[in-house]
Design brief:
This protein has no helices and 9 strands. The chain is mainly β and 131 residues long.
Length: 131
């Protein structure tokens, strides 16, 4: 759960994982071979600027951890100087991957997932950033 930048996705891009990792052990919820596992106070942030108006992802509670993980989306229009939290907040209760979608204002350059709540860990998979 260290902090570092990884290059992944299609197309490949750099993501900062802070208090998160990529794994696929028995308790991880994955669609394919791997998924992100994030703890409370994690931040998962795309490093390359783009144009994003929709963020879609699947999420599930890790293993038998407590429910109630909150996933917030932060976004920036100035490539990271100023961040705004989207109005919608997802609270994850399920232990099977469920898809969530955020619609964002025009002009978004980068996004970040911020993990909060009363649970402990959550899996995030199938992240899609769309214009």
């Amino acid at each position: 759960y260290d902090s570092g930048v990884v290059n992944l996705g299609t197309p490949k891009c750099d993501w900062l994982l802070d208090n998160a990792l990529i794994a696929a052990i028995a308790n991880d919820r994955v669609n394919g071979k791997l998924s992100l596992r994030a703890q409370i106070d994690a931040r998962i942030e795309i490093q390359q600027a783009g144009e994003y108006n929709v963020v879609e992802f699947a999420a599930a509670i890790y293993g038998n951890d407590a429910e109630g993980i909150q996933i917030k989306i932060e976004y920036t229009t100035d490539s990271g100087t100023t961040w705004t939290t989207a109005e919608k907040v997802v609270t994850v209760y399920g232990r099977q991957l469920e898809t969530y979608r955020f619609y964002l204002p025009e002009g978004i350059k980068r996004i970040a997932f911020v993990i909060e709540g009363t649970g402990r860990r959550v899996n995030i998979d199938d992240i899609k950033l769309m214009k």
